[in-house]
Every structure is written in structure tokens, then in C-alpha cells.
Amino acid sequence: QSWIGWSAKDKSLITLPCFHIGGLWWTIRGLASGSENILLETFEAIEALEVIEKYRITKTCMVPAMIQVLLAEPKCKKTDFSSLKYIVYGGSPIAESVLREAIAIFECNFVQIYGMTETGNCAVSLPADAHTSPNSGRLQAAGKAFPGVSVAILDSEGKDVALGQVGEICIKSPANMIGYWKLPEATAKTLVDGWIYTGDAGYFDEEGYIYICDRVKDMICYAGENVYPAEIENILYEHPLIAEVAVIGVPDEDFGEMIKAIVVLKAGMKATALDIINFVRGKLADFKLPRSVEFTDSLPRTPSGKVQKGKLREKYWQGYQRKVN
């Protein structure tokens, strides 16, 4: 419990659904420490802010989408966060600009966790002190493996890749699942020789920190180049008019896949596709620029807050046998 200092004096806010491994794990951690646990029936920004202030919440766990919603709520800047000591976050990528804003507004310790249901929830963590590291790129890291957990970055043949090279993140942990219930074929694909193949693409830096590029299945292959949407999304979240964004690959006869940005603008704001594309220009290599932009009112999300990119891709890939061109 020492990694975020749980104690019986804590007041923990449960924002995640308890049918999800993240919410279940956070609830059990709070109960095990003897802390007081406050459970939201559903996550609403205003209610969450009111509960933090009223009950003097000391710890909470959120997905990045929840943090974004809180920051966008006008009441956020008027809320008393002086009791808040830790915000633990994970479940999906977070834009560095969003994270820096959150650190400035909430003025508490931030801890990132990474893992999945199959690994017993979290297996990797970026501790609070790493969030204040002078290393300018450290906030982009997922962290390092917990004690007793092994992480490998493997290529398509199951071999270790070189330092800094992108491969699939694989995790071996005492908390790994035994298997999927009555799904032996799915188990055999995911659990190989004791290693959970996460489906996430990432790499190690020279200090052993793990960086996640994106979901392997979300990678876009444009003209033979591998493009990870999260890298583009991270830049677009710096745009002052953008509230939400998702980048996907759509079929293209000449280049295999074309990069499309699906954008939700902040309330009352207006922008053109060219405005969005030009914002990325010069910040990334030209082949990573979105070639088209679609504006929408909202992005489809799972109950745990993850963007459902499969749903966003559906209408563009109808009639194709494979969802990669």
C-alpha cells in the first residue's frame, strides 16, 4: 500500500463502475486499508466535484476521459481540492497537455497505472515523483513494472526487440489470469508460455521506463509506414478549440490506409478541417498528418471511458473483409 500511502484515515472516491476491473480493484484497495469509501452511482462532473469538496476526498481513481470532463466543468476552478492527495489514472492514453493542466488545477500527486483484467489489473506504474521529473518526456511514459512483474517487448515472432524499438507489450505476473472461461482458443492466443500478450504496442527507454504507442489493432499503415494514432491525438489535444479527438485509419486505394481525425469541438467553437490539419503540420513528420477531418458532437465510449474506435471505423470499412487495407 506504500506506493500511494493508503491508510484508514483516507476518504476514497469510487468513480469507476464496479463491474469493471478498475472499479473493483480500487474499491477493494480502499476496503483493505479501512478507509471510508464514497461511491458515485454514475459519474457526473458536477456531482464528483461536490463530493470531493463535501467529503474531503483524499484519493480517487479515474480514466483520462473523466479528468477531461472535470477540467471542462466551470465549477472545477472554484472547487476546494485541498484535501486531495492522490489521483490515480489509467485505462487509456492521456494527452500530456491534459495531464499538465490537471496537475496544475488539482495540485496533488498523480500516479499512472497500466495493466488489464488479464494481468490482475495494474502491473506497471508511473509514480508521483516521476510526474515532476526534469526529464521532459517522462510524462509520456506508462512507468516501470511492479516488483514481481516482468515485462517484455516482443516482435511478431515472439523475440525481444532492441531498446527503443516498438513491439507488443507482454506481461508475466503472479496475478495473471488462468484463462478465459470456456474459451480455450482465445486463451491460447493471449496467454503464451506464461506471458499475457496485451495487444498494446510500446517500447523501453534506456532507463527501463515503458512507453505505450497505441493498441496494435489501432495502428495505421499509411504508404508502408506505421503510424500510431495516440501520437497524433496527443498533438491535437493541445489545440485550444478541441474538446475530444480520435484518429483512425480509413481505406485508401493508393496508400492502403488514410489518416482521419474525428474531432469534437468545445462548446460554441468553430474550426475548419484545414485549421486542424495545419495545427499538426510541423509538429510531426508529414506522413503522420491527418488527410481528412470529420466533426462530430461526441465520441462513442465504453462504460469505463475508452473511445470505441471500432465503432468509428465501421462505416468506412463496410464491404472490406479485413479491417486493414
What does this structure look like?
The chain is globular and about 60 Å long. It contains eight helices and 17 strands. 35% of the residues are buried. 23% of the residues lie in helices and 28% in strands. It starts with 10 loop residues before the first strand and ends in an 8-residue tail after the last helix. The chain folds into three domains: 11-107, Rossmann fold, CATH 3.40.50.980; 150-215, Luciferase, domain 3 (Roll); 219-317, ANL, C-terminal domain (GMP Synthetase, Chain A, domain 3), CATH 3.30.300. It has 325 residues and is an alpha/beta fold. The protein has helices spanning 21-33, 45-54, 64-72, 96-106, 184-190, 229-236, 273-280, 309-317, and strands at residues 11-14, 36-39, 59-62, 86-89, 109-116, 121-126, 144-145, 150-154, 167-172, 191-192, 195-204, 210-215, 220-222, 225-227, 242-252, 256-265, 292-295. The model has no long low-confidence stretch (mean pLDDT 93).
